[in-house]
Amino acid sequence: MAELADIANATIRQEIAEYLDRPVEIERNIALFARTRPLMQEIAVAVIEGDQVACDRLTRQALEEGVHALEIMDDGLIGGMGIVGIKFRENFIFVPEVLACARSMKAGMAHIEPILSAAGVEPVGTVVMGTVKGDLHDIGKNLCIMMLRGAGFSVIDLGVDTAPDQFIAAVEEHGAPLLGMSALLTTTMPNMGRTIEAFIDAGLRDDVKIMVGGAPVTQEFADDMGADGYGKDALACVALAKQLLGVAA
Ligand code: B12
């Protein structure tokens, strides 16, 4: 079994030692970074530190050196974002920092995405995501989308203030097997249930899995309204999406 000392990059070692607490996450991250190239670890650090310029430069350098785009995405960008997600969940960092990390990841992904789409890498699955009707909060939804894309999902982002018929139209148009709804207001939470009812009325409920999230949403509320799953954060959102679509974790 790999050990912390097997990781070449001192910042990654420090991040794991300082911020990770759950044995399974420590083990997974040590195993990941102990086997990755030093340059992938530098890319991960650029994401963790929210350094857009470095992330852009290092991603280009890796591609020039012939590293495969998928390796850069998985070992560098997603590897770094995995640690960011955990630090956010544990309240070591907050929204502004996460957004800076997201922007760094995006700077790297800008070089990766065209290559992967040109190579015809199959997305893991298509997810329609939106914030429900009457609700303009989108920071959390956008973080979920970024993590889903990072995990290989193709995401159709409907933005905010999304009416039930817009969710239905998008699911039908894209043949999406999964829908994710976000709500941040107690007053807009019921619109998730209304959207699920609209899918039932349209005879489409069996064609799509529905996951919900947002600060006021709970597992109990999700169960009551008949959603297929609830995720409390962006990491849980990715795990839930994989579970609902039967994709290996
Ligand atoms: C930023 C913010 C705003 C910004 C939104 C900017 C934007 N682009 O999003 C602005 C200023 C516009 C705003 C407006 C309002 N806001 Co506001 N806002 C917030 C604030 C401070 C942070 C929300 C946030 O981004 N959190 C960080 C993100 C990362 O967390 P998150 O959204 O929960 O997302 C995570 C998880 O929930 C989960 N998740 C989210 N979506 C999904 C979806 C799925 C499928 C899954 C699996 C998981 C998942 O993963 C995410 C990442 O980890 C909160 C307070 C708070 N601390 O929550 C108030 C808050 C949500 N707002 C509130 C209110 C009242 C309002 C206004 C009504 C204020 C007003 N009087 O005008 C308006 C409503 C506007 C509208 N119609 O939507 C209240 C809601 C109270 C309530 N219980 O209903 C809060 C709680 C503040 C408070 N304590 O009073 N707001």
How would you describe this protein?
The chain is α/β, with parallel strands linked by helices and 249 residues long. Helices cover 59% and strands 9% of the residues. A five-stranded parallel sheet has the order 2-1-3-4-5, with helices on both faces. Helix 6 (95-118) packs parallel to helix 7 (139-150). The two termini are 20 Å apart. The relative contact order is 0.10. The model has no long low-confidence stretch (mean pLDDT 94). Bound molecules: cobalamin. Cobalamin binds next to helix 7, strand 3, strand 4 and helix 11.
Our count of helices gives 11
Name the poorly predicted regions. none
Secondary structure: helix percent = 55-70%
Q: What's the mean pLDDT score?
A: 94
Q: From the helix content, strand content and strand pairing, which structural class follows?
A: alpha/beta
Major sheet: arrangement of strands: 2-1-3-4-5
Bound molecules: cobalamin
